[in-house]
Every structure is written in structure tokens, then in C-alpha cells.
Specification:
homotetramer; 45% helix
Chain lengths: 258, 258, 258, 258
């Protein structure tokens, strides 16, 4: 049976490219996203056209039962999930506390922390029974420092990171590889960054930083590292790594002219 | 008018002693806890008997509106809250994922992270209007590392820590001092540790480690540092500090015999 | 016999004010610095004039034997050193690698890391024999992140921090309190910042940020916290704390307009 | 001309295997170690026998000029160094302060921190002129926490880590990829762990943990990740990652039975 790589949060950025990379590596890519059936169909078609195996699943991750049902369905209809890519963002932009509403703060937690917990509750026992598996968790700088305006996002991502640590502590010895991947630069992703900026500003940004300049993170490049890390020999597992474009200042630095 | 120090989570451990210490320092101590009216009354009586000013308030912090109403009531009836001590724990012991239920995980977040957010939503604007204030937030080792079995607690405390960082980033320049205090050893606290262990084991522990041995953290000693930090000159504010008993191994170390 | 507080690096900033604060608290302040006998004499005279006890010692800390001899002399002539304040900076400004010479890099290590090791080699056994003591180590943001241009300084300060952790791991259970204090803002210190900027720029900076604005760290305010931390009850010791002025962006943040 | 991967610290563990892996990937492996010409010759012969390109170089890295000369020689005789693997350890076992001698502490710094600085002083300008390069720096848990008995090692490795951060801050925008790789478990390395334990205890350890159990880190597995990271697309560079065997407790955790 084909190994399945389930991607929760499979937009046109990291999620979709990781799905594609795993499909190229012989996995069935089970791509899950909240909306845009057309976009989802296109991603599945693209993978299938190049000889890969993929399926698309719409799910609203914040709804109780949604991730759970998708996992059950994929396991029943496609095959055992060997790798889960938890790639849901929870960014709401920089907002003062006064504009960070209770529902927004709770939503951050539901997407950022609780959804991962819910997925682990269902999948970890299945993986344990099968003798192994992999959790690749996309994360953000906000997991390690709370910048001005990031009340909801930082609390959510920090919860995500510590949950990854507790999952790792319990499940690594059971042969389940948990990885916390800290993405520290903007990603060339039309579905997220593109929508945030709008078409015009996004086009300008691409002009300035992409197109061979490599100053925006290319999701296909990120996906290569996801795939590598997921296939590390178990005597040499990475739990945490950061990634950023060469031209960016790391989160712990601030720009200094020498 | 007397400055008010409001303590959310005023049991017989850190919370109660911090309240007492601020009362000795001239504040009115508004002590809030979930239950045990008798215990609360005794703490208030003890402070009053030694010439201090205090009041007791029962509130169930996980209920929406509870902290909010207590703040409103204290501000209306007692005076402006100058210092908030957020001292709610969210520890549920070490539990495998299988025994960490959804409600438990959510409760961890409600007590550990969301309650602080709710308090800040109400109090920060009041403090800002008054030109200043102090948030002292008790935290735990779980805020910085996710140990085995700490799924709920670590996610909740990490969220708390990052929320403190975002609050600090926005409100320190507005003269509001936010402090994240990482308590890294067991505290001599009958209401929490005592209840967790039961009377017999707690008595044995006290025999072994307290009574002049100083191997359990004394909440009155912790309270002295809370009071000092709350009164630092604003040109020299501490955002984060750890505390542990001299005989304990710091969380980042493991025991090594030399 | 009077307890001695020995300050290595007793200029007109943190070092001198910490000495003064400990003298006010009943200690003999043994003030050590590399040069400026006149400045040293004035500090001693100022302390003595207000009824305190102090002595001045010139020493070149990078020379092998210098700190060692000063410790021996102070122990012999004044009394047992209860508190060591290691307050030597190793900042050489932001310099590209090309301008960071081998001698400069080594000097950073000698002042930043090795001098503390040498002091600990001599003093720890004495303190252990006496049943306790305190090491207060001034440190800098560079101990936790290597900013552009900080090749020498960051390596030196990170070594200092980790050495503090190992000293703490071995000596805290022997009742010796080691504290790593991360100073994260500029300090109103004529001997260091003042010399770095020159009189004119320093005067302008004071005009802009000091004089009641509190946007430069006041060393007397820092000293109050040093004194408090040095006197924490041993069941509630702090190993690490940061300090910055209320108006400054913490090192892990970058400025964001909301 | 063939790209060169220079390995400083090319024993039979990580260093040798990384050299071999880069040779398999088309590089010339320039293997440098302090002693054991025979072992060095065998490694070179092994690589050559499988069709790769390699050379061996004895150098005593603590001697001023040694690394510098080796770099000059390799650049002159073999070709431009595209990747430097700095793989010198500085472990001296767990020793109380009393047994950590001044020379030992200094030697830790010379191997752990200063040698990397010296290599960077020579190589960074060459790489910058050529438009890019890679520094892969092996590091240890001691870089991020100072355990009991690690006075020399922790100070040295923390200095190494912060130096990596400053190098990254200055040179990443110049297309030079600096990576700090934190090895957090024991490695199956006869030249280091084997010598530390002696043949009998090492054989027992292998019996208990290696041989298909994967509880010792396999250096060939580590080498695969070094090679991957060195070839990340520059829009998605990793600065720091940790590695440990699946069965090990991460450094930030302590063992807990659930």
C-alpha cells in the first residue's frame, strides 16, 4: 500500500509544495484545505499529471471533528498516514491589544495549538500501533518571541512549539519523529502572502525580491528540506530547525550597518 | 486613595504571600480565588490584624466575565488596581497524551493563557489611562520546555509567556511593567502541592525539605522578590527572571555527580 | 568582621553604584578598576563621607595573577569576600570580521570569560569553606544573540553566560548564589558610554534620554536590584534576569508601529 | 575545478563520514586531523577506492597558523574550498572546577571558539570574493546549557555558537551559508567516544545501543543531513538544527515515566 502524506493546510505555498514533493517521492499526497475546491483540484491534477498520486479534501480545521474525520477517511480510503504535515497558520497581522478580539485570540489557539493536539490525539495511537510515523509541524518566529502586535499569534505558536516538545518527549522513543520547523522569512505564497498584500503589492514584491533574487522563500525549496528531514535515519533525528532566506536578518538580530 | 494589588489565584502559596507582602508595603490586597471562603477570610483577617488592608473575592477564572467583573468591582469599590498578580496554575500532573483529554487541554489554555489575555483586555486600558501599572505573572518551567506528560500545561504556559512578551512590547513604553516569573522548583504551598500529594506525603516532604533546610521554595521569600521587581525604577525594569531553591537542579541541567 | 563586596570593574556606571549600594547596606566595598586612581579615590571618598566603608584597588584584569592577587589581598587585609560583582565589559563596538583582529578577539575572551573563570578558581573554594557567598555577573545582550559586528563580544559574553551556568550547577548546592544579569539597554555611565561617544554626543544623549525621562538605565537603579538579588532567601534564588529601560525594545523584538 | 570540502577534525566519526559523503557528492574531501597518519591514509584510500577524490592533512589546530596554512595549501594545490566543516570537539569530560585547570580552560576556547574564528578570518574573504560558500559547524549541547562539570566545554561551545551567529549576520547576505549543528546524543565514533571509554566499555556500548538498535548516532546518517543542509536553496537556509537519536531524551527534558 502507498504511504500517505497528509497535509493540513495545503494552499499554494508551503503546504501544496510539500504535498507535491512527497508525491514525487512516492507518497500519496492527501491535500486538505479549508476552501477553494478549484485550487485544490488543480493541485491534485498537477500531481496526477506528473505521475504522482494525490487526493483533495476540504475541511474547516477549527471545527471539532473535522481533522479527525479527515484522518479517519484517508486512513480508510487511501491508506495509512505515514507523515502528517501540520501547516495551518494563525497570523492575523500586527494588531494592538485593543483590536485583538476575544474570538480572534481563541481562533489563534484553535488553529495554532488545539488543532495539532486534536490531530495528535487521533494519529499518534495509529502511528504507534504501526511502529512509526512523522509529524512535520510548520511554525513561525512568533513561536519563540512575542513581537509587538502578535498577542494572538505568538501565544498560539508558542503553544504549538511546546506541544511539539511534549509530543516528541513521549513519542520519539516510539519511533515517531516530531519536527518543529521555524519559518523565519516571508514565503512566496499567493494564497497567504498574496492575499494579505493584494495582487498589486504582491506583484511588486515578487518583482523586487523573487525572480532569481531569492529574497522571498521559495516553497519548493522549503519542501525539499521537509522531505529530507522526514527521511532522516532515526539515530540522527532533528527536532527543530529554522529556515530563512539568505538575505534576511535572523529574528534574533536587528539590522546593523558595519 | 490606596493602591490596590489584585491577586488572581490567592491560595496559601505564592498568591496569598504576595498579597500579604504588598499589604505590608501599603497596598490594599484584593485576594481572588476560586473556592474556600473560609481560607480566604482567614487570609484577609490575618492581613487586617497586622494593620494591613485586604479584601477577599471568590471567582471562577475560567468563566467568561468572572475576572472582568472582579476587576470592575475592585476598581469601583476599593480603588485603582496598580498591580495585577496573575498567579493561576494550570498543572494537571504528568499524563500521557492518551490521558490528556480535550477538555483538560482546553482548560489548561483557559487558565494558563486566555485568562491573562482577558485580564489584560480590561486592565491595560485602565492602567494606560492612569499612566502606569504592573503585571506580575507567575509562570512555570513548562513555559520554556515541554517535558514528557506536560501536553496541556506546557502549551498553556508557553502561550502565557509569549503573551507576556507581546504585552510587554506594546505596554512597557506606556509605563506598564510586565514581568514573567519562572518558578522552577516546588513551592511549600498547602493549597496546591499539599493537595496534590495528600496530607501524609506532604508532611513527609516538609520534614525532608522544609523546616530550615530551605529545599522547598518558601512563598514568603518569593513574595519579597515580587515586591522588589514591582518597584524597580522604570529605567531598569526586569521582564523575566527565574527562581528556584539553591539545592535544586535548574531545568536546563540534569543531575551529574562529579 | 565586615562582609566585603568586591567589585571587579568599578567605574562610574554599574560597578561603582553597586559598590555604593552594598556599602549603604553595611558591606565594605572593595572597588577594583584598571586605571584612573583619582576617579577611584573619589568613589571611595564619597562612600566614606556618607559613613560607609570602602577601598580602591587598581588592577589590570587581563593580566594573569591580577584578580587573584587582589582577592588574596582583600581577603587578608579587609575581610572575607561575601559578594563578588564581576562587572568587566568586553565591548569593542560593531566591527566587521575584517576589522576584528586576533588580539581583539582574544582580549574579549580574557575580559569576558577567562577573568571570571580565574576569579571563580580562587574565590569559590574560599566561599565553599565559609559555607556560602554570591557571584553577581553583569552581562550583555550579546550573551544570548550574536548581532552583526559582535564577533568578539558575543563569543566572549556567551562564554561568560555558560560559565555562569556551570558554576551555578556545581556551587548553588554549596550555598553559593551565582547570578547572570543581562543588561539590555544603554547605561548612563560616563566612564564607558560617555567615553565611547565623547563629551558632546554624550551630553546630547543625556539631554534627550536622561534627566527624568528615564530612557537611559540609571546605574543606581540597577544597583538596587543587584542588592536585592544578592539577598534573596536561598529557597528562592534567581539565576538569570534581564534589565532594560521601559522605553526600549527588548532584544528579541524589533520595532513595530501598530 | 572540483569543489573542495575541507573537514577540520576528520576522525572516524562525524568528520570522516561527512568527508566521505561530500566526496560521494562530487567534492574533493580535504581531511584534516591532528594525528594518526595511518587512519588518515585509510580514510583517503577508502574514498579514492570508491571513485572519490580526497587528500589528508595533519594539523594541530590549536597552533597559530596551522589552520591558516592548511587552508592556503589546499586552496593552492587542490582548489577553492566551497565548504568548510569545522568539527573540532573540546570535551574534557565532567570535571569539578577544582580539576578544571587554567590551561584546559584555555585549550577549550582555542579549539572550541578561537580556531573557528581563525578559519573564518582566512576563508570568509576568499568565499566572499568567489560569491559564496558554506560553513558547517558541528556543535554540542554544551553550546546552549552549562551542565555540571562543563566549565571549559560549555564556555567554549557557547562562544562557538555566538560566533556562528555573528558570522551568519555578516556573511549570509554575501551568500555564505553558516550552519550551527547541535549534536545532542553520543555518536558511534571509535576515535572519540571509543577512546574516551576504552575498547571494552565501547564494545559493550555498541552491543547495547548500536547494531540495528540505532540508539547511538550513526555518523553516516549525520553526514547525510550535513550534505542536505549544505545544498539548501539560498531562499531557504537553515542556520541551526539539533540532532539526536530517537531513543534519547532531548537536552531540555529530563526522563519522566508516565
Amino acid at each position: 500500500m502507498t504511504d500517505v502524506c497528509m497535509v493540513v493546510g495545503a494552499g499554494a505555498g508551503i503546504g501544496g509544495h510539500v504535498g507535491k514533493r512527497f508525491a514525487e517521492g512516492g507518497y500519496h499526497a492527501a491535500l486538505c484545505r479549508r476552501s477553494d475546491q478549484d485550487g485544490l483540484d488543480r493541485m491534485v491534477a498537477e500531481i496526477t499529471a506528473s505521475g504522482g498520486s494525490a487526493s483533495g479534501h476540504l475541511l474547516n480545521a477549527v471545527e471539532d471533528g473535522s481533522i479527525e474525520e479527515a484522518i479517519a477517511q484517508i486512513e480508510a480510503e487511501v491508506g495509512p498516514i505515514k507523515t502528517l504535515v501540520y501547516n495551518l497558520g494563525a497570523q492575523v497581522g500586527n494588531r494592538p491589544l485593543a483590536d485583538t478580539h476575544h474570538k480572534m485570540f481563541e481562533m489563534g489557539w484553535r488553529l495554532g495549538t488545539y488543532g495539532l493536539f486534536r490531530a495528535a490525539k487521533i494519529l499518534m495511537p495509529l502511528m504507534e500501533k504501526r511502529g512509526g510515523g512523522t509529524f512535520l509541524v510548520t511554525s513561525a518566529t512568533a513561536a519563540v518571541r512575542g513581537n509587538n502586535g502578535q498577542h494572538s499569534h505568538a501565544a498560539a505558536m508558542a503553544g504549538r512549539r511546546m506541544l511539539c516538545q511534549t509530543l516528541n518527549a513521549e513519542f520519539a522513543p516510539k519511533n515517531i519523529h516530531v519536527v518543529h520547523i521555524l519559518i523565519d522569512s516571508a514565503v512566496n505564497a499567493p494564497d497567504t502572502l498574496g492575499k494579505l498584500l493584494g495582487p498589486e503589492r504582491f506583484a511588486k514584491l515578487l518583482e523586487a525580491k523573487a525572480h532569481g533574487k531569492d529574497e522571498l522563500m521559495e516553497p519548493s525549496a522549503i519542501a525539499d528540506t521537509y522531505f529530507h528531514i522526514a527521511h532522516q535515519h532515526r539515530s540522527a533525528w532533528t527536532f527543530e530547525l529554522d529556515m530563512r532566506t539568505f538575505s534576511d536578518t535572523a529574528w534574533w538580530n536587528h539590522p546593523v550597518d558595519l
